[in-house]
Amino acid sequence: MTMTDLSGWRGHDAVDPSGDKIGKIEDIYLDEQTDQPEWLAVRTGFFGRRISFVPIAEARATGDDVVVPYTKDQVKDAPNAEPDGILTEREEARLYEHYGLPYSNRTADTALADTGLADIGTAAYEAPATEHDLAGRDEAMTRSEEELRVGTVQREAGRARLRKWVETVHVSTTVPVAHEEVRIERAPITDTNLDRALQGQEISEAEYEVTLMEEEVVAGVETVPKERIRLDTLTVVEEQEVGAEVRKERVEAEIDPDIRR
Fold first, then answer.
1. CB of 75 within 8 A of CB of 44?
2. What is the Cα–Cα distance from 6 to 27, expressed in whole angstroms?
3. pTM as predicted
4. Measured distance CA(21)–CA(99) in Å, rounded
5. Quick one: DSSP state of residue 214?
6. Across the strands, what pairs with 113?
7. How far apart are CA 29 and CA 79, in angstroms?
8. Class of domain 3-134 as given by CATH
9. What residues have CB less than 8 Å from 222, skipping those under 6 apart?
């Protein structure tokens, strides 16, 4: 495979043969002598703070993941190697031994990160001096310092719940109600109603009845859905300042002024 084939692997998840996620692919290291891809730098560990190296041989893309022929625990237990853009001969030998792969001794550093370093050629690239390189010099010492590492963990901050209960309240409204009443109307005899007035017996007894109607208020209740209520969460990001006391080693040289430097 060429770098063109592997250019899309960065940022994808590396998984073991059983599908367990190992970590995200951070970088791809090339063989310095052949410019061929040789190692995957995978971010593992708590909060992804550690870079583990996995041989790229037999790795294959499956969907959005890259499957490697090694278990998640085997990758996480791989010998530590600093992701400083180069694997030394010693680091690479330990990694090959860990993965059970044959390794032939070489005389130079064997892998460079594909960040442009491999393109300038091996003659123009000078690896930074390591502690191993300084070990052969007289009075060499290592200066170290503490660095603040900050991460976040999720914890339960509280709980919210919806609770529904029934309460009874009095409601009232005004309803128009109609009813019939009786009134007596008297009309004088005129030419208009004279004929009707002369109908029947002149002197007799009679009875006339009228039924009165009225409206009666009838009240009842019915259940009507009004709204849907649910709980939702919203992530709010705030800036918090974190500080700690860190120690740094300082190195100074005391040289007799009479000694030529």
1. yes
2. 10
3. 0.42
4. 18
5. B
6. 29
7. 16
8. alpha beta
9. none
> Among 31, 33, 25, which Cα is nearest to 53's?
25
Tell me, what's the pLDDT at 166? 93
pLDDT the model gives residue 218: 92
| Side chain identity at residue 210, one-letter code | V
* Alpha-carbon distances of 66 from 1, 4, 12, 137, 216, rounded to whole Å: 14, 16, 7, 44, 80
**Which tokens belong to 33?**
């002598």
Q: Are 89 and 105 in contact (CB under 8 A)?
A: yes
Nearest to 75, CA basis, from 96, 59, 99: 99
Report pLDDT digits (tens) over 79-135.
888 887 788 888 889 999 999 988 765 544 556 665 433 332 332 233 444 444 444
Task: For residue 140, give the 3-state DSSP assignment.
Answer: coil
Q: Is 211 exposed, middle or buried, given 0-12, 13-18 or 19+ CB atoms closer than 10 A? A: exposed
Q: How far apart are CA 42 and CA 23, in angstroms?
A: 6
Pairing state between β 86-87 and 65-67 = unpaired
Low-confidence stretches of the chain (pLDDT < 50) are: 107-108, 115-137
Say which residue the tokens 């009507």 belong to.
Answer: 224
Query: What are 155's two structure tokens?
Result: 């914890």
65-67 and 13-15 strand pairing: parallel
Q: How far apart are CA 226 and CA 217, in angstroms?
A: 26
Count of CA atoms in the C-beta half-sphere (13 A) of 173: 7
Residue environment code for 7-29, b if the CB has 16+ CB neighbours within 10 A, otherwise e: eebeeeebbbeeeeebbbbbbbb
Domain boundaries, the chain: 3-134
Token readout for 170 is: 């009095």
Query: Looking at residue 126, what is its pLDDT?
Result: 38
